[in-house]
Design goal:
The structure holds two protein chains of two kinds. Chain A is mainly α. Chain A has a single domain, classed as MetI-like (MetI-like fold, Orthogonal Bundle), CATH 1.10.3720. Chain A is 77% helix and 0% strand. In chain A, helix 3 crosses helix 6, helix 3 packs across helix 11 and helix 6 runs antiparallel to helix 9. By secondary structure, chain B is an alpha+beta fold. Chain B has two domains: 220 residues, Rossmann fold, CATH 3.40.50.300; 112 residues, Nucleic acid-binding proteins (OB fold (Dihydrolipoamide Acetyltransferase, E2P)), CATH 2.40.50. In chain B, helix 2 packs parallel to helix 4 and helix 3 packs across helix 4. Chain B is elongated and about 75 Å long. The mean pLDDT of chain B is 89. Classes of the chains: A mainly alpha, B alpha+beta. Chains A and B meet through helix 7 and helix 8 of A and strand 6, helix 2 and helix 4 of B.
Chain lengths: 272, 349
């Protein structure tokens, strides 16, 4: 009897802990969403009424629209290039034993560890030096911004693709070859589809980290060109009306939609 | 379908020799089994035939054509892997069709060939399943169908039954054997399970430490083992070390004199099959007879093992049929052990 009571107690404690954790994660999102619909310009409780005018205000503000498009472009391009580097890197790390394998593996994960501010400062100085040396217009260019964001995507793609390669049975590649497939055909017809869940997850996470990055981007954007997170920060310096909350809600929706769509193709719970 | 020849095939991995000078002729339509303990080089040999490994010496010929330097995708070898290696993202039918697509078979012909191959392994109803929705036995048959559908010159089986449970293994090995006979596909199988090897093979190749110890039929290996290793690995043998002291005379290290029919002078070992030994009064009529003490009796159901000490250094196991009438010897009994001298095989070092 005591054992049964203990188990009930344990289950109750687990549920409570899970509830607290969920509340901790979700409450800010709930408040931001609620705030986005407040009528008054200065957020205060209780709300004086509800309105969707802040959402409409976003569309009228070219800074938000431009910032959104820039962030979207940068995130998509950085995600694609990051995958093009990360997937082959993960394959090499998983399959070959070569000198410097461990250090290279760690190096590829490093951008995850270095604080964004440090990374941004370092890249800024680097860009300045390169621009001075070569006269190429790298400082403040979109290419420079994207190059920085690729650094953010690589650790995620290496990590997630490596995870999906961990249980990979290489004899299926040999089977394909014994059936007449060349190594190239084997890679595209057999290997790639098998690790697809890892690649899709890597694409999603790469996109999200790039789209939401603020600290590093601040150092790399050029004059008059800002990503969405920077636009939000700049707006907040002068105003604190619910427009920001509305922008946040749209961002949450965008990323949430991306996750739901991704989940239809590969179960995210299986890869992450 | 074609003959397969290995000529002095060797494989070195740095200083270690995985396969040493293996030569083997497999006739068209023959089923040859490479048998040996793990690490004996049998799987390496199979992978060399498939083209996954390049030999460091020697030649591989299929149908008389030298394929030693051809990559696997240019050889026509169907392989069944120990893990089955089914493509997890493709259905059963797509798995089987893969080899045909790679061979650029006209599209309309593919479904017919796939259905034919699946019918052969009695999996017709499961064409649209994914591999993970199949049992181990069904996956094994898909792997077989996938390897056979390309009408390979040689079929290579790498421990194909080791992941099946014991009951299933007994039926599948007979099925594979019958299918192979029916199709007449030249086949090389690798296994460490001697019972499996004896049941399935036309001819067996016993390997150990990278070398071929003996090639022959089941009867050859059992009646005339080439060396101590084969005598111990295929079936059971009482191996008594000693030396040939004269023509037809063997003396064990324990000092027991044994008459035999062959063997050259010098040190060697005499091999006696437990079921060729006879106990008690029946031994009186036989031309080899020893007296010893029963030390252990093991009841095995169909037979009974009697361990008899015949000298301080020599003990033999006698396998007796378990008959309803006969009284079985008890531990501590003094008893005669006899055999026909032709039953003893002398293996010289």
């Amino acid at each position: 009897m005591i054992a049964v009571e203990n188990r009930t107690l344990g289950r109750w404690a687990l549920n409570a802990a899970a509830g607290v954790a969920f509340a901790f994660i979700l409450l800010p999102l709930v408040f931001v969403t609620w705030l986005a619909f407040f009528l008054q310009a200065i957020p205060s409780f209780p709300p004086q009424g509800y309105s969707i005018k802040w959402f409409l205000a976003i569309a009228d503000n070219p800074k938000f629209v431009d910032g959104f498009w820039l962030s979207l472009q940068v995130a998509v391009v950085a995600m694609l290039i990051g995958l093009a580097i990360g997937v082959p890197a993960a394959l090499c790390l998983a399959r070959y034993r070569f000198r410097g394998r461990e250090p290279i593996g760690n190096l590829l994960l490093l951008p995850l560890v270095v604080p964004g501010i440090v990374l941004g400062t370092a890249l800024y100085v680097f860009h300045v030096e390169i621009t001075l040396l070569t006269d190429l217009p790298i400082l403040g260019s979109i290419a420079g911004l994207i190059a920085g964001h690729i650094l953010l995507v690589i650790p995620w793609s290496v990590r997630l693709v490596s995870a999906s390669l961990a249980g990979f049975d290489r004899s299926i590649e040999e089977a394909a070859q014994s059936l007449g497939a060349t190594p190239l055909t084997t890679f595209f017809r057999i290997t790639l589809p098998t690790i697809r869940p890892g690649i899709v997850a890597a694409a999603l996470f790469g996109f999200v980290v790039s789209f939401g990055n603020l600290e590093m981007s601040m150092f790399l954007v050029g004059a008059g060109r800002t990503t969405l997170p920077i636009t939000i920060l700049q707006y907040l310096e002068y105003r604190i009306d619910p427009t920001i909350a509305a922008v946040s809600v749209l961002q949450i929706l965008l990323i949430g939609t991306a996750m739901v769509i991704t989940d239809r193709f590969v179960s995210l719970a299986r890869v992450v | 379908m074609a003959r397969l020849d290995l000529e002095h095939v060797s494989k070195h991995f740095g200083p270690t020799v995985a396969v040493r000078e293996v030569s083997l002729d497999v006739r068209d339509g023959e089923f040859v089994v490479l048998l040996g303990p793990s690490g004996c080089g049998k799987t390496t040999t199979l992978r060399i035939i498939a083209g996954f490994l390049a030999p460091t010496g020697g030649k591989v010929r299929v149908g008389g054509k030298d394929v030693t330097t051809l990559p696997p995708w240019k050889r026509n070898a169907g392989m069944v892997f120990q893990s089955y290696a089914l493509f997890p993202h493709l259905t059963v039918a797509e798995n089987v069709a893969f080899g045909l697509q790679m061979r650029k078979l006209p599209k309309p012909e593919i479904p017919g060939r796939v259905a034919e191959a699946l019918a052969l392994v009695r999996l017709g109803g499961l064409a649209d399943r994914l591999p993970r929705q199949l049992s181990g036995g069904q996956q094994q048959r898909v792997a077989l169908a996938r390897a056979l559908v390309i009408r390979p010159d040689v079929l290579l089986l790498d421990e194909p039954l080791s992941n099946l449970d014991a009951k299933l293994r007994e039926t599948v090995r007979v099925e594979i054997r019958e299918l192979q006979r029916q199709l007449g596909t030249t086949t090389v199988m690798v296994t460490h399970d001697q019972e499996e090897a004896l049941i399935m093979a036309d001819r067996l190749v016993v390997m150990s430490e990278g070398s071929v110890r003996q090639v022959g039929t089941q009867r050859d290996l059992y009646e005339r083992p080439a060396d101590r290793f084969v005598a111990g690995f295929v079936g059971r043998s009482n191996l008594l070390p000693g030396r040939m002291v004269g023509p037809g005379q063997f003396q064990t290290e324990g000092g027991v004199a044994i008459a035999c029919t062959d063997g050259v002078l010098g040190p060697g070992v005499i091999a006696l099959r437990p079921e060729r030994l006879v106990l008690g009064s029946a031994a009186a009529a036989l031309d080899n007879r020893l007296t010893g003490t029963v030390e252990l009796v093991s009841y095995l159901g169909a037979s009974i093992d009697v361990h008899v000490r015949v000298s301080a250094a020599d003990r033999v196991v006698v396998s007796q049929p378990n008959r309803a009438d006969g009284a079985q010897p008890k531990e501590g009994d003094t008893i005669d052990v006899g055999w026909m001298s032709g039953a003893a095989v002398v293996l010289c070092d």
